[in-house]
Design a protein that fits this description.
Structural class: mainly alpha
Radius of gyration: 16 Å
Oligomer: single chain
Strand content: under 5%
Shape: elongated
Mean pLDDT: 83
Largest sheet: none
Low-confidence stretches: none
């Protein structure tokens, strides 16, 4: 199975989950703007900035996990 080989490492899986969450967030904001469900203006800027700061910390924490020694 190709997908199983790609996600053999937990770290790759965590990165994929992070990218998927970013994609879902961007699609939700774009969909809300296109369907006029929400007013996309300066009020969403703090929410978006906070979300991307959270995702930045998420990816940094995953990268730090790579520095931990492997237990044999």
């Amino acid at each position: 199975m190709v997908v199983r080989e790609y996600f053999d490492s937990d770290i790759r899986f965590y990165y994929a989950v992070g990218v998927f969450i970013i994609l879902v967030y961007c699609l939700a904001i774009a969909g809300a703007a296109l369907l006029d469900l929400a007013i996309v203006d300066r009020r969403l800027l703090p929410l978006t900035a906070g979300f991307f700061m959270f995702m930045f910390v998420y990816f940094i924490s995953i990268s730090i996990q790579l520095l931990e020694p492997d237990d044999v």
